[in-house]
Write a structure and sequence with these properties.
A hairpin with a 7-residue loop joins strand 9 and strand 10. By secondary structure, this protein is an alpha+beta fold. Strands 3, 6, 8, 9, 10, 11 and 12 form a seven-stranded mixed beta sheet that branches. Helices cover 26% and strands 27% of the residues. The longest helix has 44 residues, at 18-61.
């Protein structure tokens, strides 16, 4: 409701709009705050749901406990590019040997200021999930990654994609991100693109992380592949 005042020249009563506008602004402010709180609630709900999806996927796939012992809360975003198409790694989707022949074109993950990270791609199912006598086969290891700049990480193990000779059954290809305690000196053999079995097989993500005091993995993702992968 407006405030009435007298027009001194005309003697007419004029309704002053300021109070009405003030009331409108107050109502708008309350509505905006309510909506903001709702958005925060919904956002928190989505984060929690994502974490649960990650946990369920790792549990159902057996990656916990076959590769790691805990459930990372963050999704590691991995993207391949092949023949004009982008292929995302999406917690158990199927990708072919040709989809993943070249190393990923994009890797993204949450970071902390001035932190260094290690990225591992490993196959716990060679030669098969039923008889994994060569568990794990290391496909890619990047270390001393400065923050989100994964292309600047040191290539401890050069990328090798899916090997046809190990595709007798469905394999799980697991990407794990660890935060390092700092910039480190690694004593492992530096592996080039040759798929030398005695150098790459029987790798242990657990032991590697324990040796360098990484702690628990901070992000994860994985895909599945077999000869019929698409």
């Amino acid at each position: 409701m407006g405030v009435s005042i007298k027009d001194s020249q005309r003697g007419n009563e004029i309704k002053h709009p300021f109070k009405k506008i003030s009331f409108f602004n107050e109502a708008y402010f309350i509505t905006a705050i309510t909506f903001f709180c709702y958005c925060i609630k919904e956002s928190a709900s989505e984060v929690k749901l994502d974490s649960m999806k990650i946990k369920n996927a790792l549990n159902e796939s057996g990656i916990v406990p076959d590769v790691i012992d805990v459930f990372p809360k963050n999704a590691l975003q991995i993207e391949y590019y092949n023949k004009g198409y982008n292929k995302q790694v999406a917690f158990g989707n199927y990708l072919s040997r040709w989809n993943t022949f070249e190393e990923p074109v994009n890797v993204s993950y949450p970071t902390e200021p001035n932190a260094y990270y290690a990225l591992i791609m490993t196959d716990p199912d060679c030669p098969s999930r039923e008889k994994p006598t060569h568990r794990e086969w290391q496909h890619w290891v990047l270390v001393n990654i400065p923050g989100a700049n994964w292309t600047q990480g040191f290539r401890l193990t050069e990328y090798i994609g899916i090997l046809r000779e190990y595709e007798f059954a469905v394999h799980r290809y697991v990407f794990l991100l660890y935060k390092q305690p700092g910039k480190l000196k690694f004593t492992e053999r530096i592996l080039d693109i040759r798929p030398v079995e005695e150098w790459r097989c029987k790798f242990s993500t657990r032991n590697f992380a324990k040796k360098y005091k990484f702690g628990d993995p901070v992000a994860v993702n994985f895909f599945m592949s077999d000869l019929g992968g698409s």
